[in-house]
Write a structure and sequence with these properties.
heterodimer; A: alpha/beta; five-stranded parallel β-sheet; two-stranded antiparallel sheet; B: alpha+beta; five-stranded mixed β-sheet; 5 helices
């Protein structure tokens, strides 16, 4: 799980829009030069592709014509605990995004970004350093207030800074963390959201 | 004879008294029925209001989902086919504007500090996507009054439009936003590092919108040459009283 340089050999992209699939494919090819990339356009074909070859990294859209991407995320998480499972989304406060994180997603990416920006985001996610949007940070802080989730002191500082609108880099500095450490804090929070240990 | 008359009189009085009592009882019953009926219709009315609220919320959710699936997807494909980053940025702001209209009216109304945090986060993300930088300077002594949906939306849209203008006309990459209060007035200024306006006042639908939004906030908006070069936009409006901190 903590292996920093996990090899990404197999990538699965599940999205019903052809334009999005090819955009994400470009980003994946930039991020992981030697990876085999398989695309699927529905939950069903995504499942089939995963049965043929369990992916190391998967990008799974949440709104698919035949169901919610979260279902596939929890199946893939159960099949491989170390898989990097990413939600490409238009809005970082999407109501379904939180469900996906609870189902075991490693993080999300905004799919309107350039392939270059997406590629560096993918590499950060693959290193175990996801980002957390302001709406998500607020939601997690509310959970901590209601005692439905526990936060360590540095995690709380980091999320409070994000909730005030600071950028990821500014928030990390405000919490006295470097960017990589801040990312690992967020990864740990996501794992706890999914009911796992960190 | 008089005994019979007396008896008859007595009987008549007794009947009358009985009838009177029954009538009173019937009236009370009627009144009770009336109150019950009123209570029932009141609770029916409450139920109807509840159902209407729920229906409205469901409708908003449906619009949000449509917006996401349909318009969102189409705008996304425009982002993908845009040749220039500025075009892609324009599509993103349309996406953002659309989302605001739905989510501002469905979410809980925020306070000033909440709204400023969201504006800061969104603006920073937007500039970062273009390789630019946001320098946000917010005074520590800002009050935190509740803002209604309309106020929050106007504030959002004014800043978003000001940034759009800076990016479009000024080719700016560095934007400074300062927020402070002077008495009951909130002062927000936005300075870019573009070439500036020169002497001409800005014109166009975007700036007209900003002016009318500032007026909706009972405030003013003005354009000026920035002290660091570029253009400076200054928005001033009176804050509602800070009820939370009293």
């Amino acid at each position: 799980m903590s292996a920093e340089t996990r090899l990404v050999a197999d990538v699965l992209i599940v999205d019903d829009l052809a334009a999005t699939r090819s955009w994400l494919q470009r980003a994946c090819a930039l991020a992981f030069a030697d990876a085999r990339i398989v695309c699927a356009d529905s939950l069903r074909s995504g499942r089939e592709a995963a049965r043929a070859q369990l992916p190391d990294l998967a990008l799974i859209d949440l709104r698919l014509p035949d169901g919610h991407g979260s279902a596939l995320i929890s199946e893939l998480r159960a099949a491989r605990a170390s898989a990097c499972l990413i939600v490409p989304t238009i809005f970082d406060d999407d109501a379904y995004l939180f469900d996906a994180l609870r189902a075991g997603a490693s993080g999300y990416l905004l799919k309107d970004q350039s392939p270059e920006t997406l590629a560096s985001g993918l590499q950060r996610l693959q290193r175990g350093e996801p980002a957390m949007s302001m709406p998500l940070a607020r939601r997690v802080l509310r959970m901590a207030q209601n005692d439905t989730l526990s936060l360590r002191a540095e995690e709380r500082l980091l999320l409070q800074a994000r909730a005030r609108g600071l950028s990821p880099t500014e928030a990390a500095t405000a919490a006295n963390l470097d960017r990589a450490r801040a990312g690992r804090c967020i990864a740990a929070i996501y794992r706890r959201l999914a009911g796992g240990e960190d | 004879m008089s005994v019979v008359l007396l008896l008859l009189l007595f009987l008549f009085l007794a009947t009358a008294a009985l009838w009177w009592r029954e009538r009173q009882r019937a009236n009370t019953l009627l009144r009770q029925q009336q109150t019950m009926r009123e209570e029932l219709s009141r609770s029916f009315e409450a139920q109807r209001v509840l159902e209407r609220t729920r229906a409205a919320a469901e409708e908003r959710e449906r619009i949000h989902a449509d917006l996401h699936d349909d318009i969102g997807a189409r705008l996304l494909s425009l982002v993908y086919s845009a040749r220039e980053t500025a075009q892609a940025d324009l599509m993103r702001t349309i996406l953002q504007d659309l989302r605001d209209v739905v989510s501002r009216s469905r979410g809980a109304p925020g306070t000033l500090l909440d709204v400023l945090s969201e504006i800061r986060s969104e603006s920073g993300q937007r500039l970062e996507a273009l390789g630019g930088q946001l320098d946000w300077q917010q005074a520590d002594d800002l009050p935190d009054p509740a803002l209604d949906h309309g106020h929050a939306l106007h504030l959002f849209r004014i800043v978003r439009e000001a940034i759009s203008n800076a990016l479009r006309h000024g080719q700016a990459r560095h934007i400074r936003i300062r927020v402070r209060v002077s008495g009951p007035t909130l002062m927000l200024d936005l300075t870019d590092d573009g070439p500036g306006l020169g002497d001409q006042a800005p014109e166009g639908r975007g700036t007209d919108n900003m002016r009318s939004r500032a007026a909706e906030l009972h405030g003013t908006i003005a354009w000026d040459a920035g002290t660091l070069g570029g253009t400076k936009v200054l928005l001033q409006f009176p804050l509602p009283p800070d009820t939370a901190s009293r």
